[in-house]
Amino acid sequence: MLNLTEKKMTSDEQAVSEVMGGVLLVGIVVIMLSVLGVSVFAQDGPDDVPHTNVQEIMDISTDTIYLKHSGGEPISTKDAEIIVNINGRKYEYNSSQIYENLGNNSVWKIGDTIEINTMSTWTVNLQNNDRVELFLVDTPSNELIQKSRLTTRFQKEPKFAMTLTPMGEITDTSSSAKDESKKGYGKKWQSRIPDGESNPNKEIQKDKENRNCTTYYPPMEGEINTSIYQEFDFGIKPTAYGIRPGDTFVNVTLIIVYYTHDASYSNFKLKFYDTDEHGHGEWVYYKEDLPEHNSIFEPELINLTDYIYTPTDLANFKVRIEAVRDDNQANSEKEIMIDYMGLWVEEDNKESE
Q: Fewer Cβ atoms within 10 A, N terminus or C terminus of the chain?
């Protein structure tokens, strides 16, 4: 028979065993959750889907679908797939076919057109009443870049189509609110070619600190100060591109890739130089404020076809950025950085009519 002392020791040992068992159980659970958390967070997230605008045209007379890159980010051909649904039946056009269609080019960039002949590719004869849907897929993320329903329009090739970049002076009249000796424009300027072309789909995401771009410091509060701006003179010589007096344009789109410091801008405007039929010019504000891109560098497309439609308009084309901050933090340094600016121009091909 156990005495009282032995009974107490046995009771204490059982209590300690229960406590230790609980501690070990909690420890095992914590370790398992930690391993699970590391496993989940170590997985790569989905690749960023390119922000691209593609114009689709279907020509039933030649059984051809045209896909024209008309703005936004370039697309890596190895990361793209085209799916066409014709009357409920699915047809695929893979990355290798896209690569070959673009002349063995690994990048699908603005102005490039993919031509898919449905008869030779899938033995499909396009009819006027066909229901045709197109899906442009980013294969790394398996997400849609663009979805559209095609219409039966004949493709009309422009006589002249290319992107023109600023070749004249870049002027900046701004200065940092934090350090007035620090002027806008900066030493690391470069707006004719997007930074990081070797990896076009990741180019827009590149850290702003490592980019070559112009820098503009908007003033604080109040209304737009028209004397504080950043100006890009395109310095275009139309005759150098074979553009003659009397020629007109069917598409003029300004492309800007930029980053804004944060969301503290009450006004962020684009201004361009417009010339009338008598040769008189004036600065005109674009009808809408530019959106803030305060997370990453992103492209913005601005249609100026209603304003820039003659060689004279083109020869005098220049752009100004004007903005004002909606804060009073005098010791802060908030800037707008422009990495790339280009003017996509398509001349009307009157001879094809």
A: N
Domain boundary among 149, 184, 215: 149
Q: Strand (E) positions, the chain?
A: 52-59, 64-72, 75-76, 80-86, 89-93, 107-108, 113-117, 132-138, 143-149, 160-164, 170-172, 214-216, 230-233, 249-260, 265-275, 281-285, 298-303, 318-325, 336-347
Confidence of residue 123 (pLDDT cuts 50, 70, 90): very high
Nearest in space to 298 (alpha carbons), one of 50, 101, 94, 32: 50
Q: What is the pLDDT of residue 239?
A: 76
Whether residues 176 and 232 share a domain: the answer is yes
- Segment 44-68 shows an average pLDDT of 78
Domain count, the chain: 2
Note whether 139 and 227 are same-domain residues: no
- According to the model, what pLDDT value does residue 350 have? 57
> Which residues lie below 8 Å from residue 34, measured CB to CB, with a gap of 6+?
none
Residues 166 and 145 in one domain: no
Task: Compute the residue count for the chain.
Answer: 353
Query: What pLDDT is recorded for position 12?
Result: 53
Residues 281, 316: contact at Cβ < 8 Å? yes
If 0-12 CB within 10 Å is exposed, 13-18 middle and 19+ buried, where does residue 236 land? buried
* Cα separation values, 104 from 193, 254, 302, Å: 22, 28, 31
Q: Which of 286, 348, 292, 343 is nearest to 167 (CA)?
A: 343
User: What does pLDDT average to over the chain?
Assistant: 78
Calculate mean pLDDT across residues 121-139: 90
pLDDT in tens, 239-285: 777 787 888 888 899 999 898 877 778 889 999 998 877 778 899 99
Cα–Cα distance for residue pair 278/292, rounded to 1 Å: 36
Query: What pTM does this model have?
Result: 0.52
E strands, 73-205, in order: 75-76, 80-86, 89-93, 107-108, 113-117, 132-138, 143-149, 160-164, 170-172
Residues 220 and 138 in one domain: no
Same domain, 203 and 308: yes
Strand, coil or helix: what is 66?
A: strand
Q: By C-alpha distance, which of 255, 344, 253, 335 is closest to 299?
A: 255
- Residue 326, CB-side half-sphere exposure with 13 Å CA sphere: 8
